Amino acid sequence: MGGMTVYVLGIDLGTQGARAIIVDLAGRVNAEGTCALPADQVAAAEPGRFEQDPRQWRAAVYRAVGDAVTAFIAAGHASSEIAALSATGTSGTLCLVDDAGEPVGPAIMYSDTRAGAAAAGVQAAGAEMADKLGIGYNASYALCKLAWLARQAPERLERARWFLSPTDLVLGWLSGAWGGTDWTNALKWGYDVADLAWPAFIARDLGLDAAKLPQVQAPGSPVGRVTPAAAEATGLAAGTPVLAGSTDGTASQLASGAVDIGDWNSTLGTTLVLKGVSRALVRDPLGRLYCHRHPDGAWLPGAASSTGADCLAQRFDAADLPALNAAALELCPTDLIVYPLVRRGERFPFLAPDAAGFCLGLGDKPACDDPATSYAAHLEGLAYVERLCYEVVAELGAAVGEAVFVAGGGTHSASGLQIRADVLGRRLIVPEVPSGAMGAAILAARGAGYATVTAAARGMVRRARGVAPRPAMRGAYDERYGRFLAACRERGYLP
């Protein structure tokens, strides 16, 4: 890696918008760009339905990448100095495109729950595969969405040439190469990540056209090169290598520095996502947890809660969030017990399709207090969910270290980090750049200076700080966490 500095580009297409960063092989950020999606693109149209327009995604990606490249050039560089790029996007989101990569209807998002009934049929058809991989097919899986769409709008499937993920669309727009995906995104499409093959039941029992399923490759492996048209739209140099990406959870895990066996990462963004590194496949008979295949061959057990920072955006959107964050620690521990679920239904740490959030007071106190206290209680509630997640992980036999690596927008709240450390009773390790875009840049570096993705993560993730739990808070939070569990049991969410 001597000589001229090498740069890579990472792109993250999230629920709210797109981000692009240009970093060197030591993980130092040189330039970045962002573009939010229009407000009507991030709201559910009706109960259970959550769709977005991929054409809006393309515009956001091009703008974010273009702004990053412009800043890079303004800093005295040439776009040709970017040695490779990769991308990440939401997991389980269903995208249908034609031969030219144009969308066939809206994307059905990971959080769309309309495939709940279809999931039972998929689970029955794929029971052998589910047992083999230790997973359970539910509404968040793109495969279940496909099965649902086959009954609701079969003409859309007929018009489509490829069934793809958001990550695949980003890389396709830039490279012109269509019909491929990576094995982390492929998992929720029904891919057998143990034997690296599409299972027969998808076509045989579900009646889906297997020829429309993409070719699968390892994250960080070559996809193609930036086309002249994409270069003109973004400022990138035509011919820049494009490498296979990953799911957002996998990318955020890489960005956190959780790369060794027993390391675990919590990414708190719109939702809460947990991912660890395991030598062996971790099986969950209830299907709450699943295992991605590591880009370098180990396993990445993980799961996603339906809770997350979305509850703060929804419930405190008109508030002064910096002021609420500043006041939160002084108000903790609160006497409110919050399960911060915005939309109905939970997938981890328990499966409860009809789960609803709650806010409970202590004794005869009201369930809701002033906004500052309520905000602090929501931060605590997120931490209670996270603690339960790690308890479930341990029950399934996966090792969890004394420290947790964290990533996502939740790392921007110092109060939130301290509360999480206190409730978990674990030290939190915060990277300098806790984003999926950095994870995508690490994948890009796999082809631009590092032999493996693990080596790239070790070389590029820069630790910013650690947050230790406060011993004096342990007793109070143990008691309140017990009340949280009791409230979940009363509602049938836990046995």
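The record above closes out task 2.4. Task 2.5 opens with a second protein, given below.
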Amino acid sequence: MKHILATLLFAFLTQMGWAQLPDGSISPDFTATDLSGQEHNLYSLLDSGYQVILDFSATWCGPCWTYHTSGVLDELYEAHGPSGTNTLRVFFIEGDDNTMQADLEGTTGASQGDWITGTSYPIIDNGGNIFADFGCSYYPTIYTVCPNKILTQSGQASIVGHETLLNSGTCTPASLPNDALLMDYVGQTSTCGDNPAALSVRLMNNGLDTLTACTIQVSKVLPFNQSEVLGSSDWQGELGTYDYTTVDLLDVTIDSETLFVFEVISEDDNEGNNTTQGSVTASEEVANNLEVRMKTDGAPEQLGWSITDGTGSVVASVLPGSENLEPTTEYVWDVTLPELGCYTLTLMDEGGDGLFNLATSMDGVGFLEVNSTDGETILDQDWFYQELDAFSEVTFDLEVTQVTSVEELGVLSNVVLFPNPASSWVKLAYGSTRAGKAQLVVRNVTGQEVIHRDLGVMSAGNHRHILDVGFLDAGTYLVELRVADTIHSMILLHP
């Protein structure tokens, strides 16, 4: 059967609320005291030119114990710590504040063993606040922080793997006079309609001299390993060593997912860190009637979603805690977007672990699915326990280019708003094929809610309601009838 609705492509926006800090992030600072009573400040160590490895673990964690007892970090510390090349510092950070000194000593049944004996590098207990600041969502999480404060999740790497990262040009201390480093892409990652995407990158001075100017070229990646230079931007300013700033580049219009390459092309002493990439996705066309389907994880009270229009006004939502959702249960909401234009779907998890609850087994895995009304799946996204799948908030873009009336869907029928225009009162009549909570909402042209009436639980059948509009200012209004999670929108003229 030919699908009436076109496929909708959702794309991640720039500001995703991932719990885990992604590679290339600037590390948070912290000050902590180890078991021997010595205080350590991360930024002071980095400013002194040290590289730092942070092992976030928990005494009850089996994989943490396996990696700890492998001796990898001990060997690294002996080779590159104070008794070696003196370029590296390593810290074990117990991230679960429910553990005790006895757990570190391995004298409790909850601990994997003795974490202290034989460990050559400092151990920091009660590091839950540091664990949270780094956005960690699982154990072990192992970061390498370079002197420029840029972090990389090095993970449970071998000695060779760690040393490869430590010896890379982006992680060694600044040594060259003129070294401009492109950290990452921070511009728009999606566009809607004909709206152009604003391209931006973060620029760091990785050199010893103050960076005052550089030129950044923008290229579009084409098929068959080809590329097209779109232009370049000249930046001028003043950045000291390891200082960074956002550089706004070009505004581009795209019609499909496009990968861009950004490169410093001005004179530079280190070409190994002069490029970074970023992609922008264009939304595809879709009709306005959608089905949002979600399976909750083990903590459903933390979950919610909303859809906002181009002005930021919410047109449909299920906020965290607003409904009595059950764990690991599927829910379906029918959504009718009121008009043509661009919309944003936001999935929320107040627990910060995405649709996977860390306190449960794999039964806690959920998913988000969006379908068109003809049964075509638009978005089908599973979130499993991986570092990039943990989030507190993530958004997707969509564009409505076709409006299909709710009456066509058989949910509501014979929806009539009369008289229209109306100066004092208006009557709303409709028929519904399903029972459910009913609500009337009236919004002005700015999206502000001016009337809100809860009609209670309405049975299937025909209904009529009288709405007083005499107090409203003259103008055009959007009337939304919500029944059983279905929204039908109408225009009301108030002379």
